[in-house]
Design goal:
Length: about 325
């Protein structure tokens, strides 16, 4: 008789033993995985976010939305820093919105360091939209602190963001194709592979040609571009105005600098009302910031007097969490 454990009669016992061992291993792995998930959830919990009363200068006009404050120390990329604190849904949204304010002065991919601190007062508006009341970035490598405060200057259609000296933080294009807009939401070279500059603005905002030129095309590739116009400038540069609600010129038209070419919209492959402004020389994409040049507005003396209490109030809220940084 074969008494070896590997004999025919021993095979079932071997299989049973293997099955028991495998189940134990899987159970341990499952428990460990659960612990890891729980730990990650704890790390992502916004424990450093405190509810704030809505600052009066930027109080909501609709249903009251609670303001939140986040205080972070940079760990890796800007987006990773916010995601670790606020989670994978809210973190990237807040990060991208704050980045749009600091990107004019700081290269967020090369000029940040682990010693930097970011403070922000924000609120969720729904539809993946984040509103920023104030933000501060301490850039240790640069030896500078950058501040932004949201405020609607007298005579402006929309609020903008200004530093503590009353100088507008987001730059404006010289000879801009659109005067009234809420925010620049995308730039050429911002890391997203975008070929144009996006201006967030309500449907129906007037769009003008920055320079004289000739309309070469209209409404081509409508599925992606929506209502669109392509204008050739005198130096041969092609300017594309995409996602409009209405065209005001047609193919073959000669147009003057400042002439209205269309109204902003949300047509084609677009998820929100905006103007996509793109410049090309042949297949080469040009950066509108470099092509046009930029400028920054400064509040006049009377406006600065009105703006000062806004800065003081928002600074008072931010300092509660940043005094120890």
């Amino acid at each position: 008789m074969d008494t070896s454990v590997f004999g025919k009669r021993g095979v079932p016992w071997v299989l049973l033993a293997c099955s028991i061992i495998l189940n134990i291993v899987l159970l341990v792995a499952r428990v460990h995985k659960g612990d890891a998930k729980q730990e990650a959830a704890v790390q992502a919990k916004p424990v450093a976010v405190a509810a704030l009363a809505a600052p009066a200068p930027v109080a909501p006009t609709g249903p009251q939305v609670e303001w939140q404050q986040a205080n972070l120390q940079v760990t890796g990329t800007f987006e990773r820093t916010f995601t670790q604190l606020l989670g994978g849904g809210l973190g990237p949204q807040v990060s991208q919105t704050v980045a749009r304010l600091f990107v004019w002065d700081v290269n967020l991919r090369t000029e940040l360091s682990p010693n930097d601190a970011v403070d922000v007062i924000y609120r969720e508006l729904g539809n993946n939209e984040i509103d920023i009341a104030a933000a501060r970035l301490v850039a240790a490598k640069m030896g500078k602190t950058f501040r932004v405060y949201k405020w609607q200057a007298p005579g402006d259609k929309f609020a903008s963001w200004w530093n503590e000296q009353g100088i507008e933080v987001p730059m404006q294009l010289k000879n801009t194709p659109i005067k009234d807009y809420q925010q620049v939401t995308s730039l050429v070279g911002d890391g997203r592979g975008h070929a144009g500059m996006d201006f967030k603005t309500p449907v129906g905002t007037e769009i003008t040609s920055p320079f004289a030129g000739k309309v070469l095309r209209a409404n081509w590739n409508w599925k992606f571009n929506g209502n669109c116009v392509e204008v050739q400038y005198p130096d041969g540069t092609l300017a594309k105005f995409l996602h409009m609600s209405e065209n005001k010129v047609k193919e073959g038209d000669s147009i003057a600098a400042g002439q209205v070419v269309g109204l902003s919209g949300n047509t084609g492959h677009s998820t929100a009302p905006h103007l996509h402004y793109q410049l090309n020389q042949g297949e080469k994409v040009l950066d509108p910031v470099a092509y046009h040049g930029t400028m920054r507005r400064e509040l006049d003396a009377a406006a600065k007097v009105q703006f000062k209490p806004v800065v003081d109030a928002l600074d008072g809220q931010l300092v509660q969490k940043t005094a120890s940084l």
